[in-house]
Amino acid sequence: MVDGEVAYLLTKRDGVVVLDISERRAKLISKFRVENFTSLLKEGDKLYVSNQYKGLYILDVSNPETPKFVSRTLTQANRVVKSANSLYISNSKLGTVEQIDEVGSAITKYIEVSMISDVEIDGEYLYTLNLKNELEIFQNDETVFKSGETIFSVNLIAGWNLLGNPLAGEFSTEGLNGTIYTFENQEWAKNPISISSNSGFWVYSDTATKVKFIGTPKAVDFTNLKVGWNLLGSGKKVENLEKTYIYNQKWIYNPVEISPAQGFWFYK
Question: Which of 68, 75, 106, 146 allows an S-S link to 60, with CB 3.0 to 4.6 Å?
Answer without folding.
Answer: 68
